[in-house]
Amino acid sequence: MRTFGGQEFEFRSAAEAMPEDKYGFRPAMPSKPTEPAAFGPTDLRTFAEQVKHVACSNFAFASELDGRTPPAGCDKGGPSPAKTRAELLTYLRNSFAAMNNSLNAVTSKNMYEPIEGPYGGPNTRLGLAGLAIWHVADHYGQLVMYLRLNGIVPPASRPNPPELKDYPAH
Fold first, then answer.
1. What is the mean pLDDT of residues 12-40?
2. pLDDT, tens digit, for every residue of 99-147?
3. What angle do CA 23, 40, 56 make, to 5 degrees?
């Protein structure tokens, strides 16, 4: 939980640091990839698409941990209608709350139970928890590059990082 809490701070603070007019930023690719992607988009995601992907994936991993059907299409943004910076930050905040609830339900008694699902299965609860934490960290690294390409120091790299904002629930 400590590791996931750190990932939540890093990712959410990075999402909060990008101004609204830069949420459509997509790094330029020097050329098209020569190999098709095994999954996900062929083009680089916009900053907004990165945020939406992680939020949808958090809800998907939480659903799988809880034995529910996860949202479909998280590689392409999923079913949420969130589009604006404020909507995406609320969606993201809520997705971390869902993951926190699901991760807190993993115990020494159930951590090796099998989990099935399109995003993290077949796996165990513990394995899926590790995958969920890795996934946020992986995309945080991408957000860092997007921020730096726009001249923004990621909050986690600042001497006095700001506190996370509490966006309204939808």
1. 83
2. 999 999 999 999 999 998 898 889 999 999 999 999 999 999 999 999 9
3. 60
Pure H helices in 66-166: 85-104, 125-149
Class level of CATH domain 2-19+45-157: mainly alpha
Q: In this structure, what token pair is assigned to residue 75?
A: 């590689």
Report d(CA 71, CA 60) in Å as an integer.
6
Domain range annotation of the chain = 2-19+45-157
Orientation angle between helical segments 47-65 and 125-149, nearest 10 degrees: 170
Tokens read off for 98:
């869902």
Q: What are phi and psi of 58, to 5 degrees?
A: -60, -45
Closest CA to 135 of 21, 19, 10: 10
Q: Are 67 and 76 in contact (CB under 8 A)?
A: no
